[in-house]
Inverse folding.
């Protein structure tokens, strides 16, 4: 790592996590400023002029981290962006969080306890190698390849809803839900053989790829 002290803006609404990360990064020779939400982060950009932003995906009642990252990529494209989340990929939310901007990294929180790994990820983003830090692309490929409607149906299945309730929430017929589920099972190669329950296995695949969703 270079001896030049880089400026890092940490956007994290959990105070304990923010303090722990800030201390670790300061010890790794970063100048660190913190913000608890998107509005505070936008103000800090003007006064702190960060080289990179480390952004939690969920930031309370305001814009989420992906929305903030997209806004910053438009107004301040020179700032490196690294999304931080407890989930394994951006399908994890019960709502559509949007697409990541280009040249944005995606890192799971369970990896940041290793400061050297976190610093390496930050340096990759600062060196225009954000594609190396896209953990959402490295796992859960089968689930990630589903289309929007299939993903919606699978998420509701993972939340424990019946076909009738899924139909009601998606404005589909029960028959259409059954067809979507058949497509999902086929895409994920869940055959229902050897005593495997297809619904349970599909939900398990969703959990592995996206984390356990909050029931909406």
């Amino acid at each position: 790592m270079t001896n030049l002290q880089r400026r890092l803006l940490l956007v994290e609404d959990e105070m304990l996590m923010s303090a722990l990360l800030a201390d670790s990064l300061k010890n790794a020779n970063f100048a660190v400023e913190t913000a608890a939400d998107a509005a505070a982060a936008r103000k800090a950009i003007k006064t702190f002029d960060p080289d990179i932003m480390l952004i939690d995906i969920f930031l309370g009642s305001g814009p989420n981290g992906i929305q903030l990252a997209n806004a910053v990529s438009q107004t301040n494209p020179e700032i490196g962006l690294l999304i931080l989340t407890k989930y394994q990929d951006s399908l994890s939310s019960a709502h559509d969080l949007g697409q990541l901007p280009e040249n944005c990294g995606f890192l799971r929180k369970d990896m940041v306890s290793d400061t050297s790994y976190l610093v390496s990820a930050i340096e990759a983003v600062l060196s225009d190698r954000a594609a190396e830090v896209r953990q959402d692309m490295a796992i859960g490929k089968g689930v990630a390849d589903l289309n929007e409607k299939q993903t919606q149906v699978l998420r509701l299945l993972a939340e424990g809803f019946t076909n009738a309730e899924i139909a009601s929430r998606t404005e589909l017929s029960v028959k259409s839900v059954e067809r979507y589920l058949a497509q999902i099972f086929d895409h994920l190669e869940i055959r229902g053989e050897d005593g495997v329950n297809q619904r349970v296995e599909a939900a398990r695949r969703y959990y592995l790829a996206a984390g356990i969703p909050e029931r909406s």
